[in-house]
Amino acid sequence: MAIDRTIYREIPFTPRLWAVTALLGAFLLGGVWAFAHVEHQGHVATGMTNQVVWGLPHVFAIFLIVAASGALNVASIASVFDNKPYKPLSRLSGVLAISLLAGGLAVLVLDLGRPDRLIVQMTHFNFTSIFTWNILLYSGFLGIVALYLWVQMDRNVHPKWTKPAGLLAFVWRLALTTGTGSIFGWLVARPGYDAAIMAPLFIAMSFALGLAVFILVLQALCALSPCPLGQALTARLTRLLALFVAAALYFTAVQHLTNLYAAEHAGIEAFILRDGGIYTTLFWGVQVGLGALLPLLLVYGRRTPPSAGLSAGVSLLVILGGLAQLYVIVVGGQAYPMELFPGYVVTSGFHDGQIAGYGPSLPEIALGLGGVALALLATGLGAKILRVLPTNLSDQNLAAKG
Amino acid sequence: MTCRTPDQAQAPSRRDFLRSGAALATMTLAPGVTLMAFGGSEAEAAADSGKRWGLLIDASRCAPGCSDCVSACKTENGWSGHGDPERDVQWIRKVTLKEKATGREVNLPMMCQHCESPPCVDVCPTGASFKRDDGIVLVDKHICIGCRYCMMACPFKARSFVHEPVTNQKPHAPRGVGTVESCTLCVHRVDAGGIPACVEACTAAGHGAMVFGDLRDPESEISRRLAEFPSAALRPDLDLNPGVRYAEI
């Protein structure tokens, strides 16, 4: 069977494209409003407190950053592991990875107490801080993926350079997610963190979340362009997604089982797994149930390949589960009190010994969604001005490539 | 440029000498006083690496219901609440402990423990959190970006984020919305040869539950009492070697 040459096309201007752009623009404006509001009022305008110091903006920011490295996996599978059906998707994978990271970093920076001091962060580095290393990892990721895209897109560059560039990007993305997980893994003070497994857990999460976002973005871009998207390709991506979901669930299980074995962590485990109210509900109901077990059942519990609609549904469920997981880790881990005095009941006017309350405010939600909108707009812009979207994603082509 | 009369050009009198000495001291100390809260490098310059400042808190002498140390800190450093306990800053707070096994209660003040290996300093991306040579842990307000990672890392919940614009700041303790702050061990007083306001207030109230001094000086009262009586560091499992020690918990 003949294979169509891979031809990349910019997405054309259509009324639907403008409508989607306007919708995302509205969310972006909402994010700008949220930033300006909090910048003017102070963080008193948010739900964050001196008990829960990182809130919903951090959940969104970490989600986007983790998904960014995962979105690059499609390119890695093609370049590093020579999987031909994924090769036409490499460019989009790179553009999406850069865009998601930009969106996540925007949320993180705009939630700083002093975002005007970004230049300070660019000129003062404390190399004992994993934050500092992450800044270098994030900046490096943007540069390396840009290089990777250039190698793929410039016809003057010999194709032999694609694999080394892809390998560098793949190794870098593993380091990046290790760094992001270590933000929590290296926090020795809090019982909910302080675990080396945070790094591989975040890597597994990134594989799943990045691919889920990739599937949805691919479907959306193909719907906005004449590019035909065969069901076989999304079905293949969705089955791979289920595998990544299983890996993330496995590391989650190991994380909690390890904690349960140590008596000193019994309190935080009882809180997350049994007594934590919203956090327990999110863990079992959304993270494990809707975000992992249901997708696994939907994908593996059938003999026929998943339809396009099912792929989209599964991807949405995985994203929902990922957001819940990050909420439980970020907010739940802070809500549970630190044990300053083992063997004592501690009380004070500063909520010592108490479960801290937290409710996200509108500016936090708007800032987080603004970051998502920024990432999607940047991806759309990339697909509009660069030739990243292939025209040969039909089922026939996939069958021919194997 | 001013010209000096022949009289003025004469050898300086004893009074002139003292005056110039005072001026020199002022010029040396004034930046040191402002710097300790403002700028890291100057603040570090004021520190004496031969000393390690510390506190010994005797919980048996800390009176229930007494919060003179907290009030003194508020007055000295110009922080106060807005009636929002979850967001209000707390440089020092009173904590009540009830032993689970026996029901015995003790009170004690909690503040920055001025660790020898402070996690807040390790995690700070810009180096705004820093430890002086004399062991006092501070925040350089010029380069704090308000990321709050130090608050995540502090095992003692000793740091606070300023959620609202602040007014009526003290010149020696500048504060700013969007930055993190904590107990400075009244470094402006210490650099001028004084003691922290909380210790002074506790002594004035007649409790004498707080002793301030140089942990490196074996003859200081704090060193002698630490050598003589049992005391404990909080979270000893983390091996942070805090400068604040507790007795009679």
If you had to describe this structure to a student in words, what would you say it looks like?
The complex is a heterodimer of chains A (402) and B (249). Helix content of chain A is 68%, strand content 2%. In chain A, helix 2 (56-71) runs antiparallel to helix 4, helix 2 runs antiparallel to helix 7 and helix 11 (278-300) packs antiparallel against helix 12 (308-335). Chain A is mainly alpha-helical and 402 residues long. Chain A has a two-stranded antiparallel sheet. The model of chain A has no long low-confidence stretch (mean pLDDT 94). Chain A has one domain: Up-down Bundle (Formate dehydrogenase/DMSO reductase fold), CATH 1.20.1630.10. Chain B has 249 residues and is of the alpha+beta class. Chain B has a single domain, classed as Alpha-Beta Plaits (2-Layer Sandwich), CATH 3.30.70.20. Chain B contains eight helices and nine strands. In chain B, the strands form four sheets. A three-stranded mixed beta sheet of chain B has the order 8-1-9. Chain B has a two-stranded antiparallel sheet with strand order 2-3. In chain B, strands 4-5 form a two-stranded antiparallel ribbon. In chain B, a hairpin with a 5-residue loop joins strand 4 (129-131) and strand 5 (137-139). In chain B, helix 1 crosses helix 2 (40-46) and helix 3 (68-77) packs across helix 7. Chain B is globular. The termini of chain B are far apart. At the A-B interface, helix 5, helix 6 and strand 2 of A face strand 2, helix 4, helix 5 and strand 6 of B.
Descriptive terms for the model:
heterodimer, A: 402 residues, mainly alpha, Formate dehydrogenase/DMSO reductase fold, two-stranded antiparallel sheet, globular, B: 249 residues, alpha+beta, Alpha-Beta Plaits, three-stranded mixed sheet, 29% helix, disordered N terminus
